[in-house]
Amino acid sequence: MMDVGRHPNITLWTNSEVVKVQGKAGDFKVDVLRKARCVDVSECTACGECAEACPIAVPNEFDLGLGTRKAIYQPFPQAVPSAYIRDVET
Questions:
Q1: 3-state helix/strand/coil string of the chain
Q2: What is the extent of the structural domain holding 18?
Q3: Are 78 and 1 in contact, with CB atoms under 8 Å apart?
Q4: Count of structural domains, the chain
Q5: pLDDT tens, 3-56?
Q6: How far apart are CA 53 and CA 20, in angstroms?
């Protein structure tokens, strides 16, 4: 995943979802829903201080709800980019 993030001809859209795909081979139109991170990726150093200060804990989707995570979190350990996301719903 790190190599994909560094490739000059690839734009990596994280925290996004494909909504609709139209077309045929070689001529696609794709609608993508880009969700807000609420954290500036260029400023985040992934130090975790924001998660430590966050008072809200919710079930963690990454481990199927067996544990908890804070409302500001890193989706998984090797997430690209290495930056936190704020859960706006909680």
A1: CHHHHHCCCCCCCCCEEEEEEEEECCEEEEEEEECCCCCCCCCCCCCCHHHHHCCCEEECCCCCCCCEEECEECCCCCCCCCCCEECCCC
A2: 2-86
A3: yes
A4: 1
A5: 787 888 888 888 899 999 999 988 999 999 998 889 998 899 999 999 999 999
A6: 38
Q: What is the pLDDT of residue 1?
A: 67
* Residue with tokens 């925290």, as numbered in its chain: 15
Residue 9 carries which side chain, given as an amino acid letter? N
Q: How far is CA 32 from the centre of its chain?
A: 14
Using only C-alpha atoms, the chain has a radius of gyration, in whole angstroms, of 16
Residue keyed to tokens 């924001």: 50
Residue 67 confidence (pLDDT) above 80: yes
Listed residue (31, 27, 1) closest to 16, CA to CA: 31
